[in-house]
Amino acid sequence: MWSHTEKKVKVSDLQGKVIGLYFSANWYPPCRNFTPVLVEFYEQLKTSGSNFEIVYVSSDEDLDAFNNYHGSMPWLAIPFSDLETKKALNKKFDIEAFPFTKERLEKLMEEEREKHERQTLTNLLTNHDRDHLLGHPRPKQVPIASLIGKTVGLFFSAQWCVPCVKFIPKLISMYQKIKQMLVEKGDEDFEIVYMSNDRDQESFDSYFNTMPWLALPFGDPTVKDLAKHFDVHGIPCLIILGPDGKTVTRQGRNLINLYQENAYPFTEAKVELLEKQMDEEAKSLPRLVYHSGHRHELTLVSEGNGGGPFICCDCDEQGSGWAYQCLECGYEVHPKCLSVADRDSTGNT
């Protein structure tokens, strides 16, 4: 095996140690997001004198990618050229169980389930020296207790994140429409709390000033705790909490993209109703069309008929359910993003 400093290490040197096999790849965003977390965990264990070791099992596309990615890891790796060993390990091990035994994993899952069942808005958002959120105009402080009984969105985002900056105008529009809708009903309320991943106070201030909702203070450790609690690996991310403080969905961003303000209150029952409406509307959509943004013919597909979760090539947002898909190259768009065009105008002959 190779160390991260390109030094050869004998397999026999691992005798008597607890070994974790890390199946990963540089080209897959969830892997790149998780690797720094694992590095921190690994270094903490090594500092404490643990006999734990990690061996990287690569799925990188070439040797340069492997070398660059492994260079960010302080542990060992199967040589990139050793395809037979990597194939055998991928076939042999259930990587979803890494790095725990079945019994340990079941115990951790049970503990996690109990933690989510006990969660309330108060114990999620407060800490020992803060019981408020930031509001507008600054430096307004809003008691967390004032949000109890409301549907609340936890918005993980950052000014440096291009998808976040593109998504926020849509979220602001939907937030304002939902708030107006609820004012007319008079018996419910909705709020969003910004969870900053900004790099500095100045960036936080500038970005938060564009938002009409509340925020945790910049640098508050609660943000990292909540990202771990809700398993947030990418931004933007919108977690929806119900009036009882329990998690309604982790897919708030996707639901906003699909259903706009109609997604509220984001419950399973509401989503099921919206999906049925979408299925009904799809009956009147053309099966085959040309889109002004693509030269090939597009086919209407659903999750049960060749489709599945996707990123819309027109608006760059998530999608699921119905889509127009190019069977030649995989191009996909939301039906709402489709701009019907003549065959000749798309460059086809």
Automatic annotation (TrEMBL):
Its EC number is 1.8.1.8. It holds the Pfam family Thioredoxin_8. It comes from the Eukaryota. One of its GO terms (molecular function) is protein-disulfide reductase [NAD(P)H] activity. Residues 1-114, 132-283 form the Thioredoxin domain. It catalyses: [protein]-dithiol + NAD(+) = [protein]-disulfide + NADH + H(+); [protein]-dithiol + NADP(+) = [protein]-disulfide + NADPH + H(+). Keywords: NAD, Oxidoreductase, Repeat. InterPro entries: C1-like_sf (IPR046349), DC1 (IPR004146), Nucleoredoxin-like (IPR052259), Thioredoxin-like_fold (IPR012336), Thioredoxin-like_sf (IPR036249), Thioredoxin_domain (IPR013766). PANTHER family: NUCLEOREDOXIN 2-RELATED, THIOREDOXIN. Belongs to the nucleoredoxin family. This is protein-disulfide reductase. It comes from Fagus sylvatica (Beechnut). The lineage of its organism: Eukaryota, Viridiplantae, Streptophyta, Embryophyta, Tracheophyta.
